[in-house]
Amino acid sequence: MVLLIAAMIEGPWAQTQAPSTAAPILIPGPDDGYQITKTDGSQAAPSGFEGRTDTSTLTAVGNTPATMGKGVVAKFTIGNQVRTCPQADGTAEGEGEFSITVDHTDTQVSGTSKTHLEMRAKAKYKGQVGDDAYLDGPVIAEIDYSYTLSGTLRGTGGALATPAGSQVPQHITVPFVVGRGLTAPSIGAFAGGDPTRGRFSEAIAVGNALAYWAGVYYSIAQTRWRSGLCVQISFNPPSRTVQPALGTQTTVKAEVKTKRGEIVKAEFRDVHAFAGGGVSPAAGRSDVGSPLVFTYTAGNQRASNAGFQALVTSRAGIAEEAWNATLGTGWSGQISCVRSNTGDEGNNPGQSWSNFTVARITIDVQDGAGEAKGYTEVKNIAINLRPVARGGFLPDNSSSTIGTAEATRRARVVVNVRPDGQYSIQPEFLPFPPGKQRSVSCYREVCREQEMPLYIDACLSGMAGRLSEPNQLHGSMNEVKTNLGRNQKGTYTWTVMWDLARQGTSR
Fold it and tell me: Which residues span the domain enclosing 134?
């Protein structure tokens, strides 16, 4: 892909003019008198993102009388990563990068000339998902492009000269529309940029290339968040914890949550009961603090699959799940936990920061066995600026750590009940495999990247209590700490909930 993109913008890299006293920098071809070596690489986007980063390096060493002593090293990179899941408000974000660096060396008897060229672009993408779970309107790509040329030259007499380099920044905005299937995106008219600064057409070409491939990955992400990967229906009481008597009614509340645990405004539709039962309403809306309330009516004959199913659509994705009105002989239901640090963010003239972490584990249980779903996300960003002589600020140093981890494990839930009615709940499952987090620290223009494992926090613990009914276990724990972080607005929350039931001998 990298060489394809390079070909799309052939002018900027295939033949680039060095400082005025030098010949153009050429990327040699197979018949230009060079020994050429190429290496290519590709890395998939981290967990929680769609996309990849492609790299290519070309090394050319002159091997003819006309090219002896000359060498070129060219490096190309293009990468995009788009979040698989939108945020609770429907914001769908991503970022991209594009770079070409060319180092040309010409070693002759009179001395060595060197020229260094860099073209770089950083892109930030932002789209908005509508209530129908499709992207609503174009995604906006904000692209910062820069062109830098520098070098040292040897004249015919061997004198060393350092010609004035050039640095050209451009900022452009490129909208693109993502279709409702896996189709190519439609690139809209760009805005911004300054033709008087130069490199204007190159900035547009790079911006269009980044936007096109971002649109491809947005299309993939849209398919995934519409297939049930990003939200889930939360029922109260949970599935398999209530078995109403034949012909009786039960009230069930339902709302939709993201993987982070945020409640999302959602539309329920195609709600229908199983096995002769009934449910109303057949459609409706839920919102933050306002779950949709269903009335389930059990059938007149006992059925193994009693309950109802619902399909939901939201700005954070689509889900389809069932609420089962049956009990097993063993403990069934759901246990869950969430641990989060939120609200620690702010800015002032010299710095800005934002720190967020969340860990969730949910185990859906049937007769003591089930599946544990784990999710962790971290996003910590800090930027420090330095004042400049004529007023204003420039970046001084920054750091960021971003990553997600998501996995499932088979689980077993053991409930121990003592003769005095005290009980404890112990979930058992193998450790989740780690995800990845990427840390980037920068000082002025020099950045270092590091990739590290990200583990899913074991937030399930302390589930115990006293039985109030021999075949029902309900309980929760909650810990909240406030006034945390730099601005004293951060909040730490840890919540554990359990809701289990069984048929038992008294039913």
Answer: 2-225
